[in-house]
Every structure is written in structure tokens, then in C-alpha cells.
Write a structure and sequence with these properties.
Radius of gyration: 13 Å
Number of strands: 3
Order of helices and strands: EHEHHE
Number of domains: 1
Number of helices: 3
Helix content: 25-40%
Structural class: alpha/beta
Shape: globular
Largest sheet: 3 strands, parallel
Mean pLDDT: 87
Strand order of the largest sheet: 1-2-3
């Protein structure tokens, strides 16, 4: 079964939200709430950027904890590998 990410609208705009800090708690909270991307503040190095991306992505690309029934998937359940792949492809990370 292939998981398709739904953006909640009929257009192709991606909803990205700013996070107050570059920590996994804030990043996962915003993404789990329905944002399709984050804007991370205070990125001072390549290592900071890599760390933020790992917090925003599911395995095998990152360390975000597995979740099911997210708004991106219209609250449906999919096999974890399919859901992770679809969500990783759809998640945008902006570093500033």
C-alpha cells in the first residue's frame, strides 16, 4: 500500500511553520500538528542543519519517532515503511 501525503487543500502550497528552537520537541510538535515543513532558527553550521533535518525526518533518514494517523495521511494508518517514506518525501526543512 502506498501512502500519499495530503496537504489539506486543493492547491500545491506547502504549509511551513517556524519553530522557536532547533530542538526535537518543537520540531516534532509542529510537524505532528499538520505542518508539512519547518523553518528552523539559529542554524550556525552544517552540523546544526544536519541535526535539524534528522529531527524532522523518520527512519532511515532521521530520528523522528514513528507515528500513525497523522493529518498528512488523512488520519489513516499505513505500514510504517510506506508512511515514513511518503512523509520524508513531503517534509520540507528550511534553515535560517
Amino acid at each position: 500500500m502506498r501512502a500519499n501525503v495530503h496537504d489539506g487543500s486543493r492547491n500545491r502550497h506547502r504549509a511551513a511553520r517556524s519553530v522557536p528552537a532547533k530542538t526535537p520537541e518543537y520540531i516534532s510538535r509542529v510537524l505532528d500538528g499538520g505542518a508539512q515543513g519547518i523553518i528552523a532558527p539559529h542554524i550556525l553550521s552544517v552540523e546544526d542543519a544536519r541535526r535539524v533535518v534528522s529531527y524532522a525526518k523518520f527512519a532511515p533518514l532521521g530520528e523522528r519517532s514513528a507515528n500513525s494517523g497523522l493529518p498528512h495521511l488523512q488520519y489513516r494508518n499505513f505500514p510504517t515503511p510506506a508512511a515514513n517514506a511518503a512523509l520524508n518525501d513531503a517534509t520540507m526543512v528550511v534553515c535560517r
